[in-house]
Amino acid sequence: MATILLIVIYIAFIGLGVPDSLIGSAWPAIHTELNIPLEAVSIITFLISGCTVLSSMFSAKILNRFGTAGVTALSTAMTALSLLCFSVVPSFWFMIPIAVVLGLGAGAIDSGLNNYVALHFKASHMNFLHCFYGVGVSLSPYLMSQALSNIGWRGGYRYVFYVQLAITILLIASVPLWKKTLSAKETEEEKGLTLTILQMAKMADVRLVWVIMLVTNAIEYACGVWGSTYLVEEKGFDAKYGALALTIYYVGMSIGRFVSGLLADKISTWRRIGIGTVILAPAVVMMLLPLHGAVSVIGLFLIGLGNGSIYPNMIHLTPHNFGKNVSQSIMGSQIAFAYIGVMLAPPMVSLISRLFGIKIYPVLLAVLYVTMVIALKCFIRYLKKQGRYDADF
Description:
mainly alpha, 19 helices
């Protein structure tokens, strides 16, 4: 029974990733057809991420009230409906309420699934599950690139809607399975204590992990939203090949998470995080160098490869770093700050690109990378002082 449930969760993680990469790969075509400024994508991503932050902040109460199974099924249904609505929008203004629904659907499911897996499964599963998230975010730009060659971006959104609809039906059907699998003790452990955002803000270790989650996701989405546009506008790529390059980036993310999962029983979680940060260094340098566009594509691939494993491994450490009894609240806040990074990165790139040109984009990636490394070092130093750092965990 537990194995079947784990398979369902794996598929749910595909559904979690499906909507996240679509807007970035489709936007070069959307802004041309609808005559929208290139920078307007930041408004949509800001709304999606902002609403995801809100639902993540309140996820502990929502999940304790309705359970992980029901919230997961409902949230996936909301994202599927949003994708269908995006495929028929007549103008930019119709995208705004759809973005709100899409964002609200994403936050609680992300918090609930991550905490459930962190509590009940090994680190290898956390990495493999986020690898399946990578499958979802890789699948979307691939389907979009195929649609752009034939039926246009609206068809791409419809393709992805069909995938999300199938996942939604599976999750609805699996709701009774969750109740049969969880024991009463596990259900209470999953609920734990509910901390307010003010209580958590007073904790220095929580503040540091917020910064780490914010920055690693800012890197991920600065690449996911603007990577294709950078290649099209600065390196002269066709929109179709820009979308395909984004697929390569997300494939790198998936490979990074898959390999991290394979190594979970051999290399500690903290060391796998360290390996990811090391891989990021040459990747950022490749983006900074004024070389052929192919080098930038390789750089994006390596950013996905290195950065991809940091998020799931930090998530897996949450019950160990802070305690199982408060992990759901802290998990929700971590994911909220991760989405604050998602929310801020695209408009930050947009604003600075407007002032200095899209060529400044790799410099922003470098600044985010350095910030993340500093925050990680400070967090580890704090845990060591508290006697809570275990390099072998």
